[in-house]
Write a structure and sequence with these properties.
124 residues, alpha+beta, 6-stranded mixed β-sheet
Length: 124
């Protein structure tokens, strides 16, 4: 699982600072940033698992949505229909339904988008 987190974080990080599970509590938040999580993992068969991937993108631009939408589009383009095959695992990433959500934050100036995918992982 750590290899999967590393692979996906390596894809998202060049687009936007990326953290696994949550932003480190010891650091002051610098926007924009993304968080990747696997809230659920469902066995598909004896050879693979379906991992439900959640990518949350955060920004603090108030009512200017251009930057967060641009980042969200770029992350989606990088992840949707991704195929990866190496000596340990083979993965396919496809969007889930619904795959793109605009989420409210209690702080008015914070913007948040969430992308959802199904990551099918085959272990070798």
């Amino acid at each position: 699982m750590l290899e999967l987190y590393g692979l996906l974080a390596g894809i998202v990080d060049p687009i936007c600072s990326c953290f696994v599970d949550h932003y480190p509590e010891t650091e002051e938040k610098v926007y924009p940033y993304a968080e990747i999580k696997f809230p659920n993992i469902v066995p598909n068969n004896s050879f693979s698992d379906n991992n439900l991937l959640s990518v949350s993108i955060w920004n603090d631009k108030g009512s200017d949505i251009q930057e967060i939408e641009t980042i969200t589009d770029a992350v989606h383009k990088a992840l949707d229909r991704l195929r990866h095959n190496d000596t340990a695992i083979q993965i396919t990433v496809n969007r889930n339904t619904p795959f793109r959500l605009s989420l409210d934050d209690p702080e008015m100036h914070i913007q948040r988008r969430e992308l959802r995918y199904v990551v099918k992982v085959y272990y070798k």
